[in-house]
TrEMBL record:
Taxonomy, superkingdom: Eukaryota
InterPro entries: ChAPs, TPR-like_helical_dom_sf
Cellular component GO terms, alphabetical: exomer complex
Parts forming coiled coils: none
Pfam families per UniProt: ChAPs
UniProt record, GO biological process: Golgi to plasma membrane transport
UniProt protein name: Chaps-domain-containing protein
Organism name: Suhomyces tanzawaensis NRRL Y-17324
């Protein structure tokens, strides 16, 4: 047996777990006395035993070669097979299937010999102790501990309802995909049960496999499956474990920050970022694999990977520098407010790749540097690269794009245009080059050439593409989503019973000692008399909402639930929305169709479609163009620049088309652009008609939300769009619900206008490189200096006060925690870190306490509460009076305690 050691599976990024590595990456000192909190796992029941494992094998056959199958792979699958017997009630009673209750008991035979399968998914297990970490995770899952070098069930597990008294063994399978090796690592644990004495030690057989992808082998070759037992597994090279850890790290942030890529039942752990030492360790691990980043997949919003025409550079496509690995690296360094981890990453890259191989990545890191302005270093990297490298390389083309964005920030539009033209010459098929060239022409007010350049954008539109099913996420079918949607649409019964819902998705909880002493003394907070406490809870959201609205018993995730608020509401609520508004913003909208054809996936979300595909980014750019010059002007330009006579159209593709000395040709307007004009026109027309309706005060909360989302995206009356979103968020809150889509959109608006310039770096102010968000609305107002400052002031005082933002940030954090996202998503960490930079740690922490206390239900005699007016008037000069009958929190909610520790964790990354 192995020596006892600390547990590593932390649900808290601010509980500093140990970090030891047996891999080829050097180890880090750790505190062996520190104990990590136990984590509650989701446990979704399979309709057919082993179905999730079968889908895993199917995923492996198609990963990286079929639409909808992301090269970064699916999250880890943990499958637990338990024997109940074919005559048991548990085996024969399953109320969550695609069959009705009358059908499920007749003629439906399962060939599983009395076994039932349960599963969940996981990201973020760091494998510091290699295969032993997997074993520890499985032991925690099934409730077994090691006593005197023997396995036995914990007393709490024996007393729980989930313990099965059985003669047959339990089988647990753990699957983890290796991006770089293109293989699936599987660990299988067979637990031999003792039916006579529960306290008797049990025997566990362990075996391991490395299963290569069928499509990952070279032509004519065949990689064999490698088999190991608990002794020979030590022969698996340490380099393989490094690859597996890097794969985990990339998938963690790729999926936690993209709800559309999250499977139901996914747990996102935080082991990679628990401390500054572990954060630096993660950064070094990724730097090691930079030259293999193209294997991890890239954002299709950049367009298809392309290459410079220079023969000496043909091996380096754009996805060599723009990929999910580089994105993860950018994400990690932003967590440290001191900027030390960022500098550490740059030093590591230069040490591993001394020949300027990744100067482009270094520029990306410098742009997100916290705590200081590094413009000088940024320009020095560009200058040095220009002096020491060939002019025509893929990397240089990408570096010049960064210089274009820098010059736009400095309002040097003419210089930016000259360099943007050079970028197009170096990378003539790169979407980003043409996008920035078009933007430069708009900024210098050469609108005719801007329209011509936009017509030349290499937009991906593939109407004949074979799409994966809507319920396929990250290459794997979401069984829960598939069944839930089927029952929602076809079965005249409850979508999922309250009993099954609580069984599948138990409320997250951790040891009570992880909370403050005052919270620990509150006996009402403890769970069933045990030393456990709910993690970041809001009772109103976690318990009341799913109890009274069964159709909301699911996370906002995947290609289905993440599409639109219209998907996540009742038929009665939908009936209150204007049919034309549903047509434009619903899942069957034309923009949804084009987004899917452009991104290669059925996934479409009204929240981020304008940055998830090349077509969506063109929607954003053209709507910005329209808002800048006006609809009538741009229609006149369109008629002047383009011709409908195909015979006079110049079909030749000219890279330097539109230069000052070349004549303006008569060009045929591309079909996709023609359709885009019609879509934007219809969006503008619809929102103007509905907004001007005399009965607008009778809009439902849902209709207000759709008006706000549509208006903000198409850039119509920004203040009115924000007002609509706030009306929706507050109206839903009064009714006891949580408006996920409205909350996320308002927080993104707050970041764009209030917080986007709070960091030390001033290199770029109109783009977020991590999620490819173009601050187009901000740029519109920035170009009108007389409007920007008053708009921001109005936003802070009238609409998005700090009190309002903190309240809804708390609710979003709690929502994510309810669905096991223990690693805070990008929007949450971005806003929290910037608030700490703008104010300070104590001020922000005190602000959250004031918000919590003033929105908490009064259960005792009235007494004087924290006065939010005095606190927040320092910033905005305004305050809202809390109505006694409305409340967001109750005394036993732990969300404030969680956020308080989350803030301390962010601060600890800066101080260590």
């Amino acid at each position: 047996m192995t020596e006892a050691r600390p547990k590593l599976f932390s649900s808290l990024p601010f509980i500093l777990t140990p970090n030891v590595s047996s891999s080829s990456i050097p180890t880090i000192n750790y505190d062996s006395s520190r104990k990590s909190p136990f984590t509650v796992f989701p446990s979704i029941r399979e309709t057919n035993y082993g179905e999730s494992l079968g889908l895993r094998a199917k995923f492996q056959e198609k990963v990286g070669s079929s639409p909808g199958y992301d090269p970064s792979g699916s999250p880890d699958l943990i499958h637990w097979g338990k024997y109940f017997g074919t005559t048991s009630n548990t085996y024969n009673q399953n109320d969550f299937t695609k069959q009705t209750a009358s059908e499920s008991g007749s003629g439906y035979q399962k060939h599983d010999d009395g076994y039932i399968g349960f599963y969940h998914y996981a990201n973020g297990i760091s494998f510091d102790y290699l295969q032993e970490d997997i074993e520890e995770y499985i032991l925690q899952l099934i409730g077994i501990e090691v006593v005197d070098d023997k396995y036995q069930f914990k007393k709490s597990e024996l007393a729980s309802e989930r313990y099965v008294h059985s003669k047959r063994e339990m089988v647990i399978t753990y699957c983890s995909y290796n991006i770089f090796n293109k293989s699936d690592f599987r660990a299988r644990f067979v637990v031999h049960m003792n039916s006579s004495l529960k306290s008797t030690p049990v025997q566990i057989d362990k075996s391991y496999q490395v299963i290569p992808n069928p499509s990952g082998s070279a032509p004519g070759s065949h990689r064999k499956t490698l088999l190991y037992n608990h002794h020979t597994i030590k022969q698996l090279p340490l380099s393989y474990w490094d690859e597996l850890k890097a794969s985990h790290l990339i998938r963690l942030f790729h999926q936690v920050d993209n709800p559309a890529s999250q499977l139901t039942g996914l747990v996102n752990y935080s082991n990679f970022i628990d401390s500054k030492a572990k954060l630096k360790h993660s950064v070094r691990l990724l730097a090691k694999f930079l030259n293999k980043g193209h294997l991890c997949g890239s954002n299709l919003s950049y367009g298809l990977p392309t290459i410079c025409g220079n023969k000496g550079d043909q091996s380096k496509k754009t996805n060599h520098y723009r990929n999910n690995l580089v994105n993860t690296l950018i994400r990690l360094v932003q967590l440290d407010l001191s900027g030390a981890v960022n500098q550490y990453a740059i030093d590591e890259i230069r040490a591993i790749y001394p020949n300027c191989d990744f100067d482009y990545v270094i520029l990306k890191l410098l742009k997100v540097q916290n705590n200081t302005n590094v413009e000088k270093q940024y320009l020095e990297v560009i200058h040095r690269h220009l002096l020491t490298n060939s002019m025509y390389t893929t990397q240089l083309g990408l570096i010049l794009i960064e210089q274009v964005k820098f010059l736009i920030t400095k309002e040097a539009y003419d210089q930016a245009l000259l360099i943007a033209k050079k970028c197009v010459q170096i990378l003539p098929l790169d979407f980003e080059c043409w996008f920035n060239l078009t933007l430069c022409y708009i900024l210098i007010k050469d609108y005719e050439n801007a329209l011509l350049m936009m017509n030349s954008l290499p937009v991906i539109i593939n109407p004949k593409q074979d799409f994966a099913d809507l319920d396929e996420i990250s290459g794997t079918k979401d069984l829960f989503m598939s069944t839930f949607v089927h029952r929602l649409n076809n079965v005249n019964e409850e979508t999922i019973s309250d009993k099954s819902f609580k069984s599948y998705f138990p409320l997250p909880q951790v040891p009570v000692e992880n909370y403050s002493s005052s919270r620990t003394r509150n006996k009402d907070v403890k769970i069933s008399g045990e030393d456990m406490i709910y993690e970041g809870s809001i009772k109103k959201m976690w318990c009341d909402t799913p109890l009274f609205t069964p159709y909301l018993r699911h996370p906002i995730n995947g290609n289905y639930f993440y599409q639109s608020p219209l998907i996540n509401c009742s038929a009665r609520e939908i009936s209150s929305v204007d049919p034309q508004l549903i047509k434009l913003t619903g899942p069957s909208s034309v923009k949804g169709l084009f987004t899917s054809q452009s991104s290669g996936s059925l996934g479409f979300s009204i929240l981020d479609f304008n940055r998830k595909s090349t077509w969506g980014r063109c929607y954003d750019l053209l709507s910005y163009f329209v808002a800048t010059v006006g609809w009538d002007t741009i229609v006149g330009l369109k008629e002047k620049v383009f011709t409908t006579d195909l015979k006079t159209s110049d079909g030749e593709f000219v890279v330097n088309n539109g230069q000052e000395n070349s004549p303006k040709p008569s060009v045929y307007c591309e079909k996709w652009l023609e359709q885009l004009f019609l879509i934007i026109y219809e969006d503008l027309r619809t929102i103007m008609v509905i907004s001007s309706n005399d009965k607008q005060q009778q809009h439902s909360a849902l209709e207000w939300e759709m008006l706000g989302l549509l208006g903000w995206g198409v850039k119509y009356n920004l203040e009115e769009s924000i007002s609509s979103l706030i009306t929706s968020v507050m109206g839903t809150s009064v009714e006891g619900g949580f408006d996920y889509f409205g909350t996320v959109q308002l927080l993104e608006i707050y970041d764009e206008f209030i917080l986007s310039e709070t960091t030390g770096s001033r290199i770029e102010l109109f783009n977020d490189d991590y999620d490819l968000k173009f601050f187009s609305n901000k740029l519109i107002l920035k170009l009108s200096s007389n409007y920007f400052e008053p708009f921001v002031q109005t936003l802070e005082t009238k609409y998005l006060s700090l009190e309002f933002v903190m309240l809804h940030l708390m609710k979003l954090i709690s929502w994510d925690l309810r669905w096991y996202n223990y690693t805070p998503n990008y929007l949450v960490t971005k806003i929290l870190t910037k608030l700490i930079i703008k104010y300070d740690l104590i001020f922000v922490s005190t602000g959250f306490r004031v918000v919590f206390e003033n929105n908490k239900k009064s259960v005792k005699a009235p007494k004087k509460k924290f006065n939010s007016m005095n606190f927040f008037s320092y910033l905005s000069g305004t305050s809202k009076t809390k109505l006694e009958e409305n409340f967001e929190f109750v005394d036993e909610d732990t969300i404030f305690d969680y956020i308080e520790r989350l803030i301390r964790w962010i601060e600890s990354l800066r101080e260590e």
